[in-house]
Amino acid sequence: MAASLARLATRHTAKRLCLCPSASSSIAPRSFCNARSLSTSPGRRVEYATEGMTMIPTDPSFGHPIDPSSPDGINRAPDHEPDESTGRKIRHYTVNFGPQHPAAHGVLRLILELNGEEIVRADPHVGLLHRGTEKLIEYKTYLQALPYFDRLDYVSMMTNEQCFSLAVEKLLNIEVPERAKWIRTLFGEITRVLNHLMSVLSHAMDVGALTPFLWGFEEREKLMEFYERVSGARLHAAYVRPGGVHQDIPIGLLDDIYQWATQFGDRIDETEELLTDNRIWIGRTKGVGVVSAADALNYSFSGVMLRGSGVPWDIRKSQPYDAYDQVDFDVPVGVNGDCYDRYLCRMEEFRQSLRIIHQCLNKMPAGPVRVEDYKIAPPPRAAMKENMEALIHHFLLFTKGYTVPPGETYSAIEAPKGEMGVFVVSDGSERPYRCKIRAPGFAHLGAMDQVSRGHLLADAVAIIAENLSWGPGQDNKTEMVMNTVLDLESPQLVVLNGDLITGENTYLHNASHYIDKIVPPLVKRNLPWASTYGNHDSQFNLSREAIYQREHLWPNSLTANMVDDPNAGVTNYYLPVFSSDSSNPIPVMILWFFDSRGGYLFQELDSSGNEIPRDEWVVEWFLNTSTALSLQYPSHNIPSLAFVHIPTNAMLVHQNTSPGISPTHEPGINDDNPLAQQGLDANGTYIGTDIPFMRSLLSVPGLIASFSGHDHGNDWCMKWDLESNFTVPGITNTTTTTTTTTTTTSGRQKQLTNLTSPGLNLCFSRHSGYGGYGSWMRGGRQILIKEQDMFLNNNNVNNNNNDDDTHIIQTWNRLEDGTVSGWVELNRTYGTSQGDTYPVVEDKKTDCNC
């Protein structure tokens, strides 16, 4: 019996895939072989590194520990011959702490050298979430650079914005309105409470106290709501801007903040009752991570890490900014410089932040919230509707930006974790010449070796929790979504439909981190997978070939490259699907995969430097291969599906044509503004270069549907047929088959068909990754293919009279909360006046703050 996943000799030959693997397959057999779905979740940029607490032998130099996965691995001989005593006993060994350790909140990796359980040395590895932020800022206007600061620390958002805004305002030599200063101060303290809640509660949870975490996150949720009401975003607010704040506080918000502040003191007392005098908490934190005042200064500590050692330094007092010179508060300091003292400092800072919040509420002045210089801050919307000059100011501000006088400045604030600093150099243009960021946690992490030496391994958790959150949690959340969907659906094949990574911020040497994060949920379930590459895969500086090569280091990858042309992209290939018992040599179905960058010799750039997918795709290969399959199986009209990340222009036209997507006409989730589709030039104008590809899809007999990603907020399925109330440029609706013969660059002729009956189903896949934009609930589109539904005229697989009109597939979206959304049956009548349309579904939003 043939193996289900046998690879053939050349890469230009399709790999064999059975609808359900036989018992001899490397994949464990499952019951209900004909009722398993294909998961088509579009991948997003995520990261991966080895699981935490992997023990590896000690290398004498320690700086380059032995990797057990290397070819010589554990059996590598030591650099020197040990004497008899050391040969009998291993004293020191190294342990990988993270990047996936539960106590490493984000992507922190420590290589710990241990003597038993005693830490002898700690080597922190940073940069696993490096995005090149400082370099990216050099290519943005000052206003466009602001959102990058939200993402530096996902629990200190508005304070990061505040620091950058103060630096730009110094260079512009402008004075912010008083009301804006008080609003900034108010939300700066709300952000401090948010950060300290995360720090204290997660610290308690890491050492075994779960109850404070559950209680405190109820309060944190209220503060996140305040964020959302004032800025429209719970996390990345972009609210504090050079010149003031984005908009005024909505009516009623100050009253709600007051109501929260009056009761939050009781929550602080309840938390202290659980922890402060708890002998287990004291035993885990007192005398742990001791740093003297002199050492704290020498290590460049700041914030609570410095004040906990007895140094009364707070930038809000020593160098006040915004309205801090008009409020009264005390600066708590520690005595012993250990984890317990730093905990007490944070608990007292909760109370001091409440004092400042009450003063801000009582002293909040009236007036404007941003400077009235329309070259720096946008004019009111009402003015833009009445005054052409105001409209011009608005247009220039958000397209060109504003110039900043030449010079340089350093701005520092008291962020929740310590001194947050921004050094900005201006050359007189609209973009910063240089922007250097001083993150408060970097210096603290650099002292991890000195602070943790002599402590037990368990104490490392308590020490790390003192300086929480090295990076955002999108990557781990994405993996959770994948695990949930895969466990509920148990698919036979997983399609990663584009945008596996974000190539804009990625370099060749670390591309493997992202691919290696997507693959393990599939590998541990022994699932085969196939990929397409989208617009973010290799945009700018990452090789698609590198992604492709990395994929094939893992087992069960079916991704292939069947087109040699270097301009055609990488993932252009097909997979034949055979009968569940492998007894029939004729494929039951063909799966087509297309690279969203392939087929056109030149790639245009838009004004932001992004590539525009202006191409003819691989139409010639697609038509020639489908024709060859028809000749190979002349009596069989083999049904097929197509997967491509960037949708065709037909989907954009459908969504923009009345009634388009509405509650009574194939609604689904349709919140996303249509992104750049295929066939655009550098100016974003549709010039029809994807018309040959659309017509080739219509020309292949038996093609049931194509599935796309790209638009994160869309997940509907539409029928493109003669009843469609829209006209796609370059495609003619006809009642009879109309073909056009064109000659390719190689001299071959190809037949392209216009739209005929029964048409083609066009579907969006569900957005899966938390590395991408949008608050829609993540999930994955499922496709259920049954052999009997492919041959309704006769249940015999050998039926020679099968008709594409009778092919049926079922599809739905499985969401991360376990629910099913938008179940439909794609058949001849789907989407027509005689059949079903896409159901009205609940527009669910994610509850993840990552």
Can you characterise this structure?
The protein folds into 3 domains: about 15-45 and about 475-825, Purple Acid Phosphatase, chain A, domain 2 (4-Layer Sandwich); about 55-70 and about 90-125, no CATH class; about 135-440, Cytochrome-c3 Hydrogenase, chain B (Orthogonal Bundle). It is built from 25 helices and 26 strands. Strands 1-14-15-18-19-23-20 form a 7-stranded mixed β-sheet, covered by helices on one side. Strands 13-12-2-24-25-26 form a 6-stranded mixed β-sheet. A 4-stranded antiparallel β-sheet has the order 3-4-5-6. The protein starts with 16 loop residues before the first strand and ends in a 24-residue tail after the last strand. The relative contact order is 0.11. The N terminus is likely disordered.
The gist of it:
This protein is of the alpha+beta class. The chain folds into 3 domains: about 15-45 and about 475-825, 4-Layer Sandwich (Purple Acid Phosphatase, chain A, domain 2), CATH 3.60.21.10; about 55-70 and about 90-125, no CATH class; about 135-440, Orthogonal Bundle (Cytochrome-c3 Hydrogenase, chain B), CATH 1.10.645.10.
Q: What is the CATH superfamily label of the largest domain?
A: Metallo-dependent phosphatases
The counted number of beta strands is 26
The CATH class of the largest domain turns out to be Alpha Beta
Helix content: 25-40%
Quaternary organization? single chain
CATH topology of the largest domain: Purple Acid Phosphatase, chain A, domain 2
Distance between the termini: 48 Å
Number of domains: 3
Rg, rounded, reads 30 Å
- What strand line-up does the widest sheet have? 1-14-15-18-19-23-20
What composes the largest sheet? 7 strands, mixed
Structural class: alpha+beta
Strand content: 15-25%
Low-confidence parts lasting 5 or more residues at pLDDT below 50?
Answer: 1-13, 18-37, 41-88, 467-473, 599-603, 612-616, 735-740, 742-751, 792-805
Task: Identify the overall geometry.
Answer: globular
Average pLDDT level: 75
Instruction: Count helical runs.
Output: 25
